[in-house]
């Protein structure tokens, strides 16, 4: 999570804590008997660590008023009150709910309709929805797409905004579930919707990163240049993901957390082979910088890339509008769950537990002899047609 520009001052030390180099809003304190972390964003703060007494000392030092305790085996990050207030602000209470934020296979254009007569309302409401995506990553694509029309919004865009609110009303008690677990393996997914923007044919890239079972980073991003092939679009998304993984690895290292070598799952076999093989083809020279950036980290075993079948890919929810069945499945795999975690039961936490979307061996094709046999058709220019952070 980045601080506003100019906010961080001084030597980065506070109450015996030291700011990390990877993120100056994260402070660490390593004592003999306890490890404590503090995440600060302007006037908001999260305190966590290995010792309750050590955290209590920090709370007392900072004069905090309230300490929240959770039950069960994890945390559920939700914005139910904010969602309720937003529905009221937009006048969307009492509308019929729907199962997805956007109709499936919809391509949203800036042309072909009447201008919306309340552009200030559009900007206010869509801007408010952006904040909701902090705990609702399944909304990132829909909100991100409609955020592109802040200056020239159409009536058709406003109808889609209202549909997002109908979905938010249906899922108002949902949030991002962070499970308690000891797994420190890093798995990541990247995907792209090649030429997904109908107006300029730029591609949409998406990525998400899991630490153990928990989703810790995700993004939806419209690529800045037009990709000449699905392989190029996928590879650019992979380059963005590698940069994010390097940042996460550096941050974990400063927190003295040892994690596994990150594994990237990609459903475009051509992009995977480009990452694993030191061959430069004429049809890949125009994105040579991304090519060498990813290859360097793959060859040095900082990250590894595996192929995954499109049927078990996770990123469609961040790159396109998908049908309700696929959407519900992907949402569950992102650990977006209903707020049943803290219901009062004898056993403690309730709710469905979803494992991260790590594909089985049947769906994974790693850098084996089979992939090498396929390399010739990649470098002949044949593209395998398979199928947006917070910090």
UniProtKB/TrEMBL annotation:
Top-level taxon of origin:
Eukaryota
Q: Which segments carry the region annotation Disordered?
A: 355-391
Q: Which SUPFAM superfamilies match?
A: DNA/RNA polymerases
Name of the protein in its database record: Uncharacterized mitochondrial protein AtMg00810-like
Q: Which organism is it from?
A: Arachis duranensis (Wild peanut)
């Amino acid at each position: 999570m980045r601080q506003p520009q100019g906010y961080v001052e001084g030597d980065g030390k506070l109450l015996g804590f030291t700011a990390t180099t990877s993120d100056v809003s994260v402070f660490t304190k390593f004592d003999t008997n306890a490890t404590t972390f503090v995440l600060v964003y302007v006037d908001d703060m999260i305190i966590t660590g290995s010792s309750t007494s050590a955290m209590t000392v920090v709370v007392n030092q900072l004069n905090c008023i309230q300490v929240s305790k959770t039950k069960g085996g994890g945390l559920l990050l939700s914005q139910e009150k904010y969602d309720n207030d937003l529905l009221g602000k937009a006048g969307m209470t009492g509308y019929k709910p729907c199962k997805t934020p956007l109709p499936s296979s919809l391509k949203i254009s800036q042309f072909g309709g009447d201008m919306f007569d309340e552009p200030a309302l559009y900007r206010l409401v869509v801007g408010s929805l952006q904040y909701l995506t902090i705990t609702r990553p399944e909304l990132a694509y829909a909100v991100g797409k409609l955020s592109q029309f802040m200056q020239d919004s159409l009536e058709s865009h406003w109808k889609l905004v209202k549909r997002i609110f109908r979905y938010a009303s249906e899922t108002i008690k949902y949030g991002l579930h962070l499970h308690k677990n000891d797994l420190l393996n890093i798995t990541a997914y990247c995907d792209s919707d090649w030429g997904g923007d109908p107006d300029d044919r730029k591609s949409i890239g998406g990525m998400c990163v899991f630490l153990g079972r928990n989703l810790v980073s995700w993004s939806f991003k419209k690529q800045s240049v037009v990709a000449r092939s699905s392989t190029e679009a996928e590879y650019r998304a992979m380059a963005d993901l590698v940069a994010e993984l390097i940042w996460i690895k550096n941050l974990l290292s400063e927190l003295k957390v040892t994690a596994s070598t990150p594994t990237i799952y990609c459903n475009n076999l051509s992009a995977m082979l480009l990452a694993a093989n030191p061959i430069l083809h004429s049809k890949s020279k125009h994105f040579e910088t991304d090519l060498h950036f990813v290859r360097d980290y793959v060859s040095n075993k900082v990250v590894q890339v595996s192929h995954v079948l499109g049927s078990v890919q996770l990123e469609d929810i961040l790159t396109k509008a998908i049908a309700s069945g696929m959407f519900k499945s992907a949402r569950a795999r992102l650990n977006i769950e209903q707020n049943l975690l803290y219901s009062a039961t004898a056993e403690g936490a309730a709710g469905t537990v979803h494992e991260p979307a790590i594909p089985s061996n049947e769906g994974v094709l790693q850098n084996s002899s089979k992939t090498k046999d396929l390399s010739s058709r990649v470098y002949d220019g044949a593209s395998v047609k398979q199928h947006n952070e917070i910090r």
